[in-house]
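Progress note, sequence design subtask.
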């Protein structure tokens, strides 16, 4: 008598219960402003119970049963966090940063309760923004250690990712790729304006295609950040996309463009991190790579670091 739809709204999952008898839709209620959720294993068709998983920046991975008749969720199991973890000690929020073209970019934020918004907090801003991948607020034991030491953590739901649908993805790839970078900059500027942090205390992190993001932002706004971590970063865009012997090059003409086409080559060249390195005051950087990564070759990081 029921069906469950998985929907997305403002980069948040909605689990919508449809009652065939009444025609009504009911959303499963979630208690936090940012979170991650999804259907669990539901092998039984003849049941009034729907199982789903839930976690957030603050809540460890959890499994719930939702009674579709009463609308009540029951917690079945939650991942144990050793060391006296108390979710009441942390606060999560959702903010929106206005991009250069007026787009409102969601930012998910978490920090330890009681910190002052006076611009002195260290803040780690993470982004990816490629392939239509959506970023959700998930739980991390390692991150709790940062939060306990007063670090604010923020996740930027920038274009190129699928957080706000297909159009959001399309506006951050090919000849619109630079929206990904300017969205991230807008998020950083918003966090500074709202006094979560300041440029002197702001760190950014991204890996693989997210390393391209960080590399491009470093060239565009080195003044806005104190430190950056580029993990297996895709930073030598032009040369890599010219090498069709690499496994990702030809399929990724649809993501970055084909440098054999002049318009796409010229655009790629305007943001390629390696190409646009200049003699100027960059933030401190940690560049990490892998000899065995089949997606991003180790020599990209080596060339980038050397230059």
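Output:
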């Amino acid at each position: 008598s029921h069906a469950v739809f998985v929907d997305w709204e403002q980069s948040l999952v909605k689990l919508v219960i449809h009652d065939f008898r009444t025609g009504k839709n009911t959303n499963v209620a979630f208690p936090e402003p940012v979170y991650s959720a999804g259907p669990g294993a539901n092998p039984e068709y003849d049941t009034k119970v729907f199982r789903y998983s839930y976690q957030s920046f603050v809540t460890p991975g959890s499994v719930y049963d939702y009674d579709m008749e009463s609308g009540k969720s029951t917690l079945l199991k939650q991942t144990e966090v050793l060391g006296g973890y108390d979710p009441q000690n942390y606060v999560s929020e959702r903010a929106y940063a206005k991009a250069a073209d007026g787009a409102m970019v969601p930012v998910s934020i978490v920090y330890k309760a009681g910190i002052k918004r006076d611009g002195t907090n260290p803040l780690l801003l993470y982004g990816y923004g490629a392939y239509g991948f959506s970023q959700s607020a998930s739980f991390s034991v390692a991150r709790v250690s940062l939060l306990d030491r007063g670090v604010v953590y923020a996740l930027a739901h920038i274009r190129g990712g699928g957080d706000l649908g297909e159009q959001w993805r399309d506006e951050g790839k090919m000849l619109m790729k630079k929206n990904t970078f300017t969205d991230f900059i807008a998020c950083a500027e918003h966090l500074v304006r709202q006094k979560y942090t300041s440029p002197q205390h702001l760190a950014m992190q991204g890996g693989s295609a997210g390393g391209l993001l960080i590399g491009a932002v470093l060239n565009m706004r080195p003044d806005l950040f104190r430190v950056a971590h580029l993990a297996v970063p895709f930073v030598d865009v032009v040369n890599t996309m010219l090498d069709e012997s690499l496994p990702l090059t030809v399929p990724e003409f649809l993501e970055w463009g084909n440098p054999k086409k002049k318009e796409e080559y010229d655009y790629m060249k305007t943001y390629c991190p390696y190409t646009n390195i200049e003699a100027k005051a960059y933030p401190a950087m940690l560049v990490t790579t892998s000899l065995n990564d089949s997606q991003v070759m180790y020599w990209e990081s080596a060339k980038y670091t050397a230059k």
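The chain is about 20% helix and 30% strand. Work on this subtask will continue into the next period as scheduled.
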